[in-house]
Amino acid sequence: MTTPLDVLSFWFAEGPDTFRDAWFKRDDKFDDEIRTRFGNLAAAAQTDALATWRNTSAGVLALAILLDQFSRNLHRGRAEAFIADPLMRVIARDAVLVRRQDLGLTPTQRIFLYLPFEHSEAMADQNLSVALFEGLRDDPRMAKPDGTIDYAWRHRAVIARFGRFPHRNAALRRESTPAEQAWLASGGGF
Q1: Residue 21 carries which DSSP code?
Q2: By the 8 A CB rule, do 54 and 148 touch?
Q3: How do residues 12-29 score in pLDDT, each as one tens digit?
Q4: Which of these, 186, 180, 179, 154, lies nearest to 166 by C-alpha position?
Q5: Which SUPFAM superfamilies match (predicted)?
Q6: 78 — phi, psi (to 5°)?
Q7: 30 half-sphere exposure, CB direction, 13 A CA radius
Q8: Would you call 185 exposed, middle or buried from its count of C-beta atoms within 10 A (0-12, 13-18, 19+)?
Q9: Alpha carbon distance 67, 42 (integer Å)
C-alpha cells in the first residue's frame, strides 16, 4: 500500500527544502513517471478515499501533491487537470487555517499547501494565497522566496483583471473575451 511518505519521497527526492525545476515545467518523462507510480492513487484521492491522510502534516501535504500537482501533470491541457481543485481547497483551508498543519512543514513544503489558493479563480483565495506566501518571505530556509512569492502576486493580478485564468479557457471550453485573447496572444504568462 502506498503511503504519504512514498509520495513525499518522490516529490522531494532531493530533500524537503530543495526546489526542483521539474515541479513547474512541462516534462513528459516526469509526467509519465507520475502516471505510472501514482496515477491510481491520485484517482483515489479525488474520491476522498484517502481522507485519513488529512490527520497529519505529512499526509495532508501528500494529498496536496496528489490533488493539486499530480492532477496537473496527469491531465495537462485538459479540464481534468482542475477537477480536484475544490476538494483540495477544502482540505488546505482546514489544514492551514484550522489545524495549522503547515507549521509542521518546511517552508518549501508549505508552498504545496498554499498553491491550491493560488490556483483558485476566487479573489478571496488569491488574497489568502498572497498572505500565506508573504509569510514565507523572510524564512532563510525558503528556496527561491522572491520568485515563489512573485508568482502568487502575478496569479492574483490575473484574477483581479479577468476574474479567471484565461489560459484555462480552452481546456474548460470557455470562450475568451477580446481582452483575454489579447493577453494570451502577448504571452499571457505569469
Answers
A1: G
A2: no
A3: 999 998 889 899 899 999
A4: 180
A5: TPR-like
A6: -125, 155
A7: 17
A8: exposed
A9: 6
Grid cell locating 68: 493539486
Residue 5: pLDDT over 90: yes
Mean pLDDT of 150-175: 97
Phi then psi dihedrals of residue 164, to 5 deg:
-165, 175
If one counts every other C-beta atom within 10 angstroms of the C-beta of residue 169, the result is 17
Q: Per residue in 22-71, pLDDT tens?
A: 998 999 999 999 999 999 999 999 999 999 999 999 999 999 999 999 99
CA distance 154 to 113: 18
22 and 30 Cβ atoms separated by less than 8 Å: yes
Query: pTM surpassing 0.90?
Result: yes
**Rounded distance, CA 167 to CA 184, Å?**
7
